[in-house]
Amino acid sequence: MSIDFGEMLLKERNKRGLSLRAASAIIGISHTYLAELENGQDPRTGQKPLPSSDVMYKICKAYEIDEAVASSLLGYEDEDTMFLYMASRLHRLKHENPVKYHRFLDIIIED
Description:
With 111 residues, this protein is mostly helical. It has helices at 5-15, 20-27, 31-39, 53-63, 67-73, 79-96, 98-109.
């Protein structure tokens, strides 16, 4: 049986012994939004919530989750979609932390 994104979030929060409010404070999102993500449904629309790349980054950083793994659980399974996601993350990193951005490029380019 495979796990989905919401189940993974709940599992990671429970593994850390965090309440919904404590986890949301660490991540930097509202507890109601975290509950929506964990439940896999926006109560207003009934649709599956899809977090922005910024929210994904915050969640992955807070829970120490590989972004590729988290993204695949959201359905970013084809290579092109993953590349676009990674490109947007790199673009943001370039502006937010140029030192890390250049370190990353050095790692990629190094033979």
